[in-house]
Automatic annotation (TrEMBL):
Belongs to the sulfur carrier protein TusA family. PROSITE patterns: UPF0033 (PS01148). It comes from Derxia gummosa DSM 723. It holds the Pfam family TusA. This is Sulfurtransferase TusA family protein.
Length: 89
């Protein structure tokens, strides 16, 4: 995403979807969003590279705002990770 994140952004809930392949990160996000109020932010951490496109499509289909997708490159034995930040509609 192009807009910088506000420094006071509050992440209400975080989902660890590391090691899960499509569609599980999306399904976990969908479930977690039901626990949030409108405007609250969910962070999903995934290691599936396809999750970047998946979360872009998910946000468009559901109307939840995709605030950012932040990649942490692989390092040593640790695979690359993506943090997806969604604001509930």
């Amino acid at each position: 995403m192009t807009d910088p994140l506000p420094p006071d952004l509050v992440i209400k809930k975080e989902v660890d979807a590391r090691g899960l392949m499509c569609p599980l990160p999306i399904l976990r996000a969908k479930k977690a969003l039901t626990d949030l109020q409108s405007g609250e932010v969910l962070k999903v951490i995934a290691t599936d590279g396809g999750s970047v496109r998946d979360f872009q499509a998910f946000a468009k289909q559901t109307g939840n705002a995709l605030l950012a997708q932040i990649e942490t490159p692989a390092s040593g034995d640790r695979p690359a990770e993506w943090a997806h930040l969604l604001r509930r509609r």
